[in-house]
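Troubleshooting: if your tokenizer reports a length mismatch, compare your output against this known-good record of 202 residues.
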Amino acid sequence: MWKSFAKALTYILHPLFMPVMGVFIILNAGTYVSYMPAEGKKFVILIVFLCTVVLPLSILPFFLYRNIISSVNLHNRKERFYPYLFTAFFYYLAFYLTQRTGMPALIQTFILASAVTVFMVLLVNVFWKISAHMAGFGGVTGLIAALIERSEASLTLLLIVFILLSGLLGSARLHSESHTPAQVYTGYIAGFAIVFLIALLK
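Known-good structure output:
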């Protein structure tokens, strides 16, 4: 049963879903961004979803066809380079579009931090396999912590929930033997630190 739960958790909390999750939190966290009109919120979610989920997934069939990757799960570290590179580009595209369309600075900052996180994972992955799952989820957790630190929202309970989910996700990645403990911890800490610092300081 744990094996099925761990696998489901890995898919539900996939790193590609983290920018959308983070933006959804920002839009409903009680910050000034929460006062955006409903149509504006839908537009933000749509842009982020297209750039950080749809576009990165759309290139995988091409990579499979060209034998650049052997599986969409990207278990092989060496096969991750081009998918991660294109994903980093699409994340930066999302940041560019949030700037061009005049979206709130808080959303722009989070998308930029997400792009930096993907680029960090890309660089580290050249030499060493790091957990993208943990980096992504650590980033959203770092966002929540930054929102609390900036006193813009009362999200303490949500932070606790995400910390607990972080433990479950890390255990799932270890149980599937996708990563070593060092790869899980490093990914989480790096993702958390990058988003927290950029969101707090920018």
